């Protein structure tokens, strides 16, 4: 699983990354993490506000910082 955190590197982006890493650990899955900070790259995902969470090139969430539990709920159906 490839997980991308979209955003300029702000506190919300860091919190989203932390929540995503915790969710991955709790699910016991393998994932690579990538930070996407280039504005042109972020815009290419068609999100209007950061931070954004992209899993295997599919936008899962944008514009808010979910809890680790919420990220886990978003990732669970994608595992397998």
What does this structure look like?
The protein is an alpha+beta fold. The chain has a single domain, classed as 3-Layer(aba) Sandwich (Glutaredoxin). The protein is 38% helix and 24% strand. The protein contains three helices and four strands. The protein has a four-stranded mixed sheet. The relative contact order is 0.28.
The CATH class assignment is Alpha Beta
Let me know the number of strands: 4
Give the overall form. globular
Largest sheet: 4 strands, mixed
Q: Give the tally of structural domains.
A: 1
Poorly predicted regions are none
Spatial separation of the terminal alpha carbons: 10 Å
CATH superfamily, please? Glutaredoxin
Radius of gyration: 11 Å
CATH topology annotation: Glutaredoxin
- The string of secondary-structure elements, in order, is EHEHEEH
Residues in helix, %: 25-40%
Strand content: 15-25%
How does the helix and strand content classify structurally?
A: alpha+beta
Numbering strands along the chain, what is their spatial order in the largest sheet? 2-1-3-4
Q: At CATH's second level, what is the architecture?
A: 3-Layer(aba) Sandwich
Considering the chains and any ligands shown, give keywords for the structure:
single chain; about 80 residues; alpha+beta; Glutaredoxin; globular
